[in-house]
């Protein structure tokens, strides 16, 4: 089973060659990274589902306990539930590697010897506090061998889930707890506590995915187990929307080439490239395309600044696979500079030579290769 690595967000906060930080805010076409949640017209998420009926679980003695504190151990849980009868087993589903432990609360399964004991425990413990945290208890259902995660069709719901997941990862579990309390009457945030809803499953997967280094617009799609337990279901992530990486990066490069564009646009494009280094060839090809569609009066030198920042961060960023960016640029150097020359006037050649001089100091490419590129602009 593929074990995911946790990549700290700070690893993407590399310094831009042209002064901006790679951790600068996302551009306006990435609403999930804004500092405030998007305004929605109407609550669009379903209310939490009701408890399964007694008839559905007439013979079950197994309970599922949600929203456990990350500090709660199986010994603590046994002590809390043993007063209701003889316990057969207690199992906490610990997140793999602790990636999202404590963000939305851990889940545990408690099995009693008799049905009446389990009924009494569920009535008494549902809504009770364990380790200073309110827990929710229900009848446990048989876990499926595979659990498919579906992306919400409503883009507003999707944006809200993304915003919440990013802020929980940035500020910790206390942010989610405060959100649940303050938005208790707001149906838009029901996905935080509607344990069996598709939106909650998507939210939990999104937290795990982002905590383990997946990019906002691209993620690993191999099935995996979110918990360190062989009996845990295999989670199948949603598919990645086709073409989204190319289009989103292309918009950033286009903005970097607008007249009087600030360095923030360059840093935004560079950061996106670092986060999506797995698509290095697609990104470099999109720079060539962007230069080809650069309109009269545009600033094609901005695209070169994006490439330069990408090269710098591909050498210093501690992100898996970021080396692919430099290799992809080197393969397309001739195409890049041919498209650059075709898009700009002779009065801008000096800016190209200045960038090549910086590359010479960095020793990013062989000297003879850089000399050949410089001769195109002399």
Automatic annotation (TrEMBL):
Family annotation (SMART domains): RRM, SWAP
- Using the record's annotation, list all stretches that form the RRM domain: 61-142
Q: Where does the CID domain start and stop, copy by copy?
A: 241-378
Checking InterPro entries in the record gives: CID_dom, ENTH_VHS, Nucleotide-bd_a/b_plait_sf, RBD_domain_sf, RRM_dom, SR-CTD_assoc_factor, Surp, SWAP/Surp_sf
* Entry's Gene Ontology molecular function annotations: RNA binding
Q: Where is this region: Disordered?
A: 1-58
Q: Which UniProt keywords apply?
A: RNA-binding
Per the record's keyword annotation, is RNA-binding included, yes or no?
A: yes
GO biological process per UniProt: RNA processing
Which part of the chain is the SURP motif domain?
A: 160-203
Is Mitochondrion found in the keyword set? no
Gene Ontology CC: nucleus
Q: Which Pfam families match?
A: RRM_1, Surp
> What PANTHER family has UniProt attached to this entry?
RNA PROCESSING PROTEIN LD23810P, U2 SNRNP-ASSOCIATED SURP MOTIF-CONTAINING PROTEIN
Query: Mind telling me what this protein is named?
Result: Uncharacterized protein
């Amino acid at each position: 089973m593929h074990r995911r690595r946790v990549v700290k967000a700070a690893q993407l906060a590399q310094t831009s060659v042209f002064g901006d930080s790679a951790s600068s805010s996302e551009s306006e076409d990435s609403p999930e990274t804004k500092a405030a949640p998007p305004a929605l017209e109407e609550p669009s998420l379903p209310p939490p589902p009701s408890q399964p009926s007694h008839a559905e679980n007439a013979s079950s003695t197994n309970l599922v306990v949600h929203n456990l504190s990350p500090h709660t151990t199986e010994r603590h849980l046994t002590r809390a539930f043993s007063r209701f009868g003889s316990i057969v087993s207690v199992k906490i589903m610990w997140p793999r590697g602790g990636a999202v432990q404590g963000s939305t609360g851990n889940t545990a399964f408690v099995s009693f010897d008799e049905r009446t004991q389990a009924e009494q425990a569920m009535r008494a413990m549902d809504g009770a506090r364990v380790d200073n945290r309110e827990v929710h208890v229900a009848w446990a259902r048989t876990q499926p061998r595979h659990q498919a995660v579906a992306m919400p069709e409503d883009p507003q719901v999707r944006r809200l889930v993304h915003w919440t997941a990013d802020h929980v990862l940035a500020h910790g579990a206390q942010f989610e707890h405060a959100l649940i309390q303050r938005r208790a009457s707001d149906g838009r945030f029901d996905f935080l506590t509607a344990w069996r809803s598709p939106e909650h499953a998507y939210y939990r997967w999104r937290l795990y995915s982002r905590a383990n280094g997946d990019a906002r617009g691209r993620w690993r799609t191999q099935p995996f187990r979110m918990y360190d337990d062989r009996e845990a279901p295999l989670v199948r992530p949603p598919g990645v929307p086709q073409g989204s990486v190319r289009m989103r990066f292309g918009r950033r490069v286009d903005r970097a080439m607008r007249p009087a564009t600030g360095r923030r646009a360059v840093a935004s494009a560079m950061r996106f490239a670092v986060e999506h280094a797995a698509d290095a060839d697609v990104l470099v090809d999109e720079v060539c395309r962007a230069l080809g569609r650069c309109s009269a009066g545009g600033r094609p030198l901005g695209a070169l600044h994006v490439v330069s920042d990408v090269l710098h961060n591909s050498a210093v960023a501690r992100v898996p696979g970021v080396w692919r960016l430099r290799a992809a640029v080197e393969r397309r150097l001739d195409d890049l500079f041919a498209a650059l020359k075709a898009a700009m006037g002779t009065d801008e050649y000096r800016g190209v030579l200045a960038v090549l001089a910086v590359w010479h100091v960095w020793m990013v490419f062989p000297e003879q290769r850089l000399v050949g590129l410089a001769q195109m602009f002399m």
